[in-house]
Specification:
It is built from five helices and 15 strands. With 269 residues, the protein is of the alpha+beta class. Strands 1-2-3-4-7-6-5-8-9 form a nine-stranded antiparallel β-sheet, with helices on both faces. Strands 12-11-14-15 form a four-stranded antiparallel β-sheet, with helices on both faces. Strands 10-13 form a two-stranded antiparallel ribbon.
């Protein structure tokens, strides 16, 4: 049973819903043949949380949520006594599983442990909000191992830049003059997918050093398609002049039936 659950987690369909370990770190699963590292923990309320690196693709997911419809859902997340942040999460093939748009910063927050609260808007009986309060175990090595397996830094000053971005994922007074227009990956069988990309801006409006923050499915080619689209995209300063140096983030949803669309990044209240 454990093997089947871990295999499901590797596909982002589930997180192993095992009895929570009382040790000081998260549980681990490793499969060198698949280039797979999973750090995970589970709770008696049915939620499971995992940080997974598989073949260079990193994601953070929560399982056991009320089923969602559509490709994305909003979750409100808070650590300790901080304010709640409205976060966009992606719905996996299993509708009770949500995948974070910005997994690396979230993983770096989670490894500290302590109180984590998750609110599912409209997820309770009668359409009321459903709130989970989790006693998140600290992770001294497990999450770090998952991050490092995908080449993600353990400390990244760009996390603060992400928090400062506007709702559309762009720096203040910056807008797209030519938005990214990714093409649906050819030869793929998935009916939908997504990719979240971060890039550094240049004064002439081009972007550079783009990184796929997360994508799903990992072998769908969606991250590569999103990166390729940034080469043709251009930014502009709303006030004229050069584009200020900084960081951007954009998310693209791909569906087989229609062209991909670039969505806005949700902000904290």
């Amino acid at each position: 049973m454990k093997t089947a659950l871990i295999a499901a987690a590797a596909l982002a369909h589930a997180i192993p819903l095992l009895a929570q370990d009382t040790a000081s770190d998260w549980d681990m699963t490793r499969d060198p043949d698949k280039k797979l590292v999973i750090a995970y923990t589970a709770f008696d309320n049915g939620l499971g949380i995992g940080a997974r690196c598989m073949n260079g693709s990193f994601l953070v997911l929560i399982s056991g949520l009320p089923p969602a419809t559509g490709a994305t859902r909003t979750l409100k997340v808070a650590f300790q006594d901080d304010d709640f942040n409205d976060q966009r999460w992606n719905v996996a093939e299993n509708p009770v599983v949500a995948i974070s748009d910005s997994p690396s910063p979230l993983a770096r927050d989670m490894r500290e442990g302590g109180k984590m609260q998750v609110i599912v808007p409209g997820g309770g009986e009668g359409g009321r909000n459903l709130r989970y309060v989790l006693d998140l175990p600290a992770s001294s090595t497990a999450i770090d191992e998952a991050l490092q397996a995908c080449g993600r830094p353990l400390v990244d000053p760009r996390d603060a830049e992400l928090d400062a971005l506007a709702d559309d994922g762009l720096p203040l007074d910056t807008e797209w003059s030519r938005p990214p227009e990714p093409a649906y990956p050819r030869g793929r069988t998935y009916s939908r997918g997504f990719a979240t990309v971060s890039c550094l801006t240049q004064p002439d409006g081009r972007v550079r050093d783009c990184v796929v923050e997360t994508e799903h499915p990992i072998d769908g080619g969606f991250g590569r398609a999103a990166i390729e689209a940034t080469r043709r995209a251009r930014l502009r300063n709303k006030n004229g002049g050069e584009v200020p140096l900084g960081m951007i983030q954009y998310r693209t949803t791909f569906t087989m039936e229609s062209s991909p669309s670039t969505g806005s990044r949700l902000r904290s209240n």
